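Q: What does the assembly look like in three dimensions?
Context provided by user:
Components: four
Sequences:
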Amino acid sequence: MTELAVSRKHGETRDKLLDAGLRLFSEKGFEGTSVMHIEAAVGLKPGNGSFYRHFKSKEALMEAVVRREIERVRSWRIAAAGFSTGERGREKYRQEFLQSLEAMEAIKDLINLLAREYGQGRFPELMAELRALLLDEGVSVFREEYRASMKQGVLREMDARILSSIMMSSLVGYHLANMYFGCEPGGVNREEFTEGLVELMMKQKGASS
Amino acid sequence: MTELAVSRKHGETRDKLLDAGLRLFSEKGFEGTSVMHIEAAVGLKPGNGSFYRHFKSKEALMEAVVRREIERVRSWRIAAAGFSTGERGREKYRQEFLQSLEAMEAIKDLINLLAREYGQGRFPELMAELRALLLDEGVSVFREEYRASMKQGVLREMDARILSSIMMSSLVGYHLANMYFGCEPGGVNREEFTEGLVELMMKQKGASS
DNA sequence: GTCTATAAGTAGATAGAC
DNA sequence: GTCTATCTACTTATAGAC
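A: Here is the predicted structure of the complete assembly.
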């Protein structure tokens, strides 16, 4: 184990390739991005295959890019275990919704890449992993939080499964509309939007049942 | 004006090319779809350029595909002017939400294509037109409907701009999660989801203010 | 670890026979 | 309106000098 043909720990260039790969695959899609383009982006002379000293193929770079992003998201999840602490109420939910939008913003390249490549059958296992991470885990965290809140009587009485699905879908839709169209849906900004979501979730003043 | 080099009204094959173009661009992206592939899909011998008797370039096909879809959506909009009639209430909104999801399903290839190509700078004017059609018009129809409903006192009192943005984002998010991940967010089906949206919108029993 | 050079394949597009 | 044949450019990837 002296030096693998294409070993795992190169230096700066490898990291630059991962960064450029994420950005370019996200912007132009996997097919739309050539290795020459990637090489040029990191300062290598394009078309001379120096890329292949770092990754054995374009597919290998794609896989490494997605795996690195998955790990990034995982480490955030662990760090943000503070989710279910603190006093439940308007302000807490408002901040959590804003944080969700910010988190999506932070991984927008990953989301974009996912949108482009998903369903094409190119990286099925990778895409399945992303789905589990982004969608399934996200909804389930929301759901458990809402269940706890309802017991405390701060939220309107409603199936927590459905409420969490709606809140999640809503944030996802808002983010994607923003991302793809570069504008806020209906001219409603983040603060108004998240405030509105909280308003809908909370028990209305004087509600009887 | 006897016969343009690549004239506008060919026959069956041209339509087949438009159909195949929509499907393939949506599935594999513009860059990911080769002219050979398109030719094969409509029964032409691939790689022999018969495609170019119908469209002067791959870009030209893309443009024609999107324009045809835009017209399709426009004609629906006109036909569905019945939106703002009928008795306002739970059942009406429930059906309208379901119809929105069905409409998105019906143009999912267009949406997918949009998601893939938007922001790449390849067809800027085309994408801007789509945005106006799908997002801006959609939200504004919702908004006016809600304004009218609030006056009648069936909806909770809330900024109609924000409510319509939330409802729209929510439907878009639900649809996209479904489309990209092939499953319902949080295992909530359409009926439950739309029912939940209505529940959130309506005035709660016994709400005072 | 980057460069020169180049192989082998595929892409978009055109000319002309039928 | 489809086919044969072909041009040019670009793509992924490799071999080997430095």
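Follow-up: Chain A touches chain B through 61 residues (CB under 8 Å).
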